[in-house]
Structures are given as C-alpha cells and as structure tokens.
Amino acid sequence: MEQSASKIEIRIFVTGKGESKAEIYRHLAPITVNKITNKMPLQGRVSRLNNNTVCILAEIFVGTEKGRTKFTQGDIALLPLNGSICIFLKDTTSIRPMSLIGKIVSNLEILESSGRGDIITIKKI
What we know:
The chain is 12% helix and 51% strand. By secondary structure, it is mainly β. The protein is globular.
C-alpha cells in the first residue's frame, strides 16, 4: 500500500471499548503534526466538552497553525491553549481557534461511547 508523504494513519484506542482509525495530515499544520507524531504514542484521560467533543490532554505546546473555529463531525484538532487533542463528535463551532490536523475514518461511535476518565491511547499504524 502506498502512503502519502502528508498522510499519517493512526489508531485511537479507548481502553475496554475498542478502537477507531484516523488520518492526520502534515499539510494541515506541519509543525503541530510533527510534534504530535514525535511524541506518539500519546495517552490521556477523556474529558468531554458539551457532549460534542472528546479531548485528551496531550501536552503538545505549539502556537495555532491555520487556526479555525468551525469543525465537522470526525475532525481532529489541537487546542494550543492547553495542548489538548480534540475529536469532534458533531459539527461544532469553537470559542477558541484550533489547528485542524486530521479526521476519524472509521468507528467514531467508539469515541462517542467514551466517558469522562476513560483512557485513550493514540498510536501510529
């Protein structure tokens, strides 16, 4: 299988619930994506925002790259304010600009079923 220089396939594991597949793209936020991939595997506890976003504190501290506030279901973004990776379960408008880095490609329902305190692990395939 041929892999794009920009696309990085990842798996997001929710302990005891299953896994989702996702893709992150260097061209969306090159500095942010490089910091994230260099720090993988990432692990953190779930926090939920307004029941439409799953976040884990990943301690990835970079500025906002190509910041935006509108996200669609399945988008993955970095919140530079606290270094959290956020996964959007519904179309959402954020109060703060975030760096879009990728998209969930399968099993979003696993993340929808996650609750506060569940452990998420993010790894490169």
